[in-house]
């Protein structure tokens, strides 16, 4: 017994020594820092404060030696000039974090995707009673999912990118995918290798679907890309990367995954090629992409050419490179040695170009049943520790690090995925995000090196992203402290010259303990789904809390009139309406099953009314307009043909996504947007009501095939293909007045909003693209 204890003690000492040895050896490479980082941060401050004179009172000093064991530090203190604040920081990003900390926790101000509430005025800043020093918990703060750059950023210009980069830096982000414009480089290299332009036209997807092209799932769909698009995006990429590096955000550049035009086997007849899977039913005309086996010598030849051109064209050696070969596809060979050699081939290609290369890889593929522990261990085995960072993509709900023993000696980042498809219904799990990162640190020790956000789309549930990124420097909060954090969140979001009414504070505490308490998966909202007899929506929280929160915010609207409050009021109103819609739909289906013509007609009329109310309230706020998305896409169009092309890409993605055979993708990127309700979702429901009423009158069951055809031909196809409607980018109506009107209309029936409660501990994975 004593000998066993001694052996256990020795093993623990060995592990501790190994942990210390690795931690002391690993020094994460960084690109050469810009000499103008301090100037970049003062410019950021000036932009956020809209050029107000008070912006000049922030003094910025950046000194890399302030970092502790490679981790960022910022220090806030009173500046040398009267009324000034000095931000001393270890990096540009740390300085931006310090500025944001001052805004939030000293000046009760805020800066979000939806807008800002800045409470700085006069000729001096609020002085500090004592200096404030914050040390980051981890090395990295990560931003993005490959899908983010299609669901949200694909049609941005640099002005919009500038705002996002400012937001990233202020929230501490220092590691980001840099994928914009990379098709320009790939096209250039592939043409030099002998591919024709027509072969490339058959290869690249349209802009709205480039994320899935880059991951090897799609080719050709909604394409081709024009040379003008390539050139404009490459120019944009240069601007983005220049700004990121000035602030000291590290851009993660794409490395070669092996995917090539379908004619590649003819161009390289001796090389070994495979085809990816038929992805979600697209068929091999738009899927089944050809990819070059990383164990083949030609892989290095092509990969080196692409990465060299990327580095030369962008004038940056990032040292961090992304590559995800088996995203939602099964490897062609399950042999353990082969799996190890595949990753070795990919990494060696990176290292031939950059000896300090660090491979950033999504761990998303490991959710597939194919990836058993022995296969994952082999797959990762030939990349040296310290040369790979895995993104545990869905850590708040499906963490993979415990399954694979902290990825067998590799380093990883804990991420909150949260959003799929850029959906903008309300949900989240403050509890999981509060506890998860520290639990990962406790479990994995030094192998957990960062906190990140891997949402598929932005512009939703801002509370979750602010809270997640604060986990990069704070400790887990107690229940009482979390309630206090919610109060402070409301204060800095709404504070104006008038006091914040207690009803608004209580409303957000209710939301924090229901909608945002332990609700990581959200709802498959019925209103925005394809109508059918089998549709059902469940609730993952107490719906009475949502209704009461709405009542309290409507009450608070007599005392608050800030821009962010209006946004939140519309957001909560639309949630109540969508759950009301689902409740009435249940009654509609019950009436249909009784063949109750009057009951179906009555409930259908109520649902039509709710759809009209939804359109009305969404149209009252600029952040819920389809016109923004379509308008951003059309900025690239200079001819009638291009107008059709960009209109199709924008509207196809947010509607059926794929084609009439890929039903699993329909409404994956659904949005509560004015314009979408009126011209897409409501017309589908009108078709459905007509079909079920005729079914009752004629005494015949609903023909599901005929229903599908009518939905496609009468509602879906006209929306994304046949109409080139110009959607407004300005609002209609007053949000507060509309919310009050709707509350008075529905208040007597709020207690009737009831749905089945989800009882499953493991909610089905909502990412419809995922296949084993």
From TrEMBL:
Coiled coil: none annotated. The keyword Hydrolase applies. Residues 485-745 form the Alpha-N-acetylglucosaminidase C-terminal domain. InterPro entries: Hex-like_dom2, NAGLU, NAGLU_C, NAGLU_N, NAGLU_tim-barrel. GO terms for molecular function: hydrolase activity. Residues 141-474 form the Alpha-N-acetylglucosaminidase tim-barrel domain. This is Alpha-N-acetylglucosaminidase.
């Amino acid at each position: 017994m004593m000998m066993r204890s001694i052996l256990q003690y020795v093993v623990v000492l060995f592990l501790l020594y190994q942990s210390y040895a690795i931690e002391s050896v690993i020094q994460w490479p960084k690109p050469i820092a810009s000499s103008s980082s301090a100037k970049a941060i003062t410019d950021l401050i000036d932009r956020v404060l809209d050029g107000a004179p008070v912006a000049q009172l922030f003094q910025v000093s950046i000194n890399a030696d302030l970092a502790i064991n490679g981790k960022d530090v910022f220090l806030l203190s009173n500046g040398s000039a009267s009324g000034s604040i000095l931000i001393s920081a270890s990096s540009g990003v740390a300085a931006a974090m310090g500025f944001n900390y001052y805004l939030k926790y000293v000046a009760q101000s805020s800066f979000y995707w939806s807008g800002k509430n800045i409470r700085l005025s006069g000729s001096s800043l609020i002085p500090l009673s004592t200096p404030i020093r914050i040390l980051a918990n981890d090395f990295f703060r990560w931003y993005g999912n490959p899908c983010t750059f299609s669901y949200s950023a694909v049609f941005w210009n640099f002005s919009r990118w500038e705002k996002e980069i400012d937001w990233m830096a202020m929230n501490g982000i220092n590691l980001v995918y840099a994928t914009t414009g990379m098709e320009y480089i790939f096209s250039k290299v592939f043409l030099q290798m002998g591919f024709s332009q027509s072969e490339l036209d058959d290869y690249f997807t349209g802009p709205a679907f480039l994320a899935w092209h880059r991951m090897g799932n799609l080719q050709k769909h909604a394409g081709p890309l024009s040379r003008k698009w390539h050139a404009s995006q490459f120019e944009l990429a240069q601007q983005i990367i220049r700004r990121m590096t000035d602030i000291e955000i590290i851009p993660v550049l794409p490395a070669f995954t092996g995917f090539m035009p379908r004619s590649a086997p003819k161009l390289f007849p001796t090389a070994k090629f495979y085809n990816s899977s038929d992805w979600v039913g697209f068929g091999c005309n738009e899927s089944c992409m050809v990819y070059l086996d990383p164990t083949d010598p030609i892989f290095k030849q092509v990969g080196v050419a692409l990465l060299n051109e990327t580095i030369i064209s962008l004038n940056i050696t990032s040292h961090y490179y992304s590559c995800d070969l088996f995203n939602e596809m099964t490897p062609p060979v399950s042999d353990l040695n082969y799996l190890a050699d595949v990753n070795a081939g990919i990494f060696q290609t990176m290292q031939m170009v950059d000896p300090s290369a660090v491979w950033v890889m999504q761990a998303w593929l490991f959710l597939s049943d194919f990836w058993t522990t022995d296969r994952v261990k082999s797959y990762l085995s030939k990349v040296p520790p310290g040369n790979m960072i895995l993104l545990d993509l869905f850590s708040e709900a499906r963490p993979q690090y415990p399954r694979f023993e902290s990825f067998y000696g590799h380093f990883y980042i804990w991420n909150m995925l949260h959003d799929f498809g850029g959906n903008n219904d309300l949900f989240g799990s403050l509890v999981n995000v509060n506890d998860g990162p520290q639990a990962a640190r406790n479990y994995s020790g030094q192998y957990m090196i960062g906190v990140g956000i891997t949402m598929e789309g932005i512009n939703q549930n801002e509370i979750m992203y602010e809270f997640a990124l604060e986990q990069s420097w704070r400790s887990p909060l107690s229940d009482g402290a979390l309630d206090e954090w919610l109060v402070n969140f409301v204060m800095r979001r709404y504070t104006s010259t008038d006091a914040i009414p207690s009803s608004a504070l209580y409303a957000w505490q209710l939301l924090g303990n229901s909608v945002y308490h332990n609700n990581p998966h959200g709802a498959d909202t019925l209103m925005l789904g394809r109508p059918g007899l089998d549709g059902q929506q469940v609730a993952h929280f107490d719906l009475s809390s949502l209704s009461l929160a709405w009542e309290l915010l409507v009450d608070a609207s007599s005392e608050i009139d800030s821009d962010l409050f209006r946004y939140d009021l519309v957001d909560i109103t639309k949630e109540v309406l969508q759950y009301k819609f689902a409740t009435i739909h249940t009654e509609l289906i019950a009436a249909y099953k009784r063949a109750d013509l009057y009951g179906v007609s009555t409930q259908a009329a109520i649902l039509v009314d709710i759809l009209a109310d939804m359109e009305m309230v969404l149209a009252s706020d600029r952040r819920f307009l389809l016109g923004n998305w379509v308008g951003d896409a059309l900025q690239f169009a200079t001819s009638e043909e291009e107008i059709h092309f960009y209109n199709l890409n924008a509207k196809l993605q947010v509607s059926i996504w794929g084609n009439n055979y890929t039903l699993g993708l329909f409404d994956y990127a659904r949005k509560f947007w004015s314009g979408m309700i009126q011209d897409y979702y409501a017309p589908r429901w009108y078709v459905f009501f007509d079909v079920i009423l005729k079914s009752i009158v004629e005494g015949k069951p609903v023909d599901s095939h005929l229903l599908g055809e009518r939905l496609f031909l009468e509602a879906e196809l006209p929306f994304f293909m046949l109409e080139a409607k110009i959607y407004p980018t300005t609002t209609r109506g007053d949000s507060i007045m509309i919310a009050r009107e709707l509350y008075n209309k529905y208040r007597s029936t709020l207690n009737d909003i009831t749905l089945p409660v989800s009882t499953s501990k493991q909610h089905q994975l909502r990412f419809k693209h995922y296949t084993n």
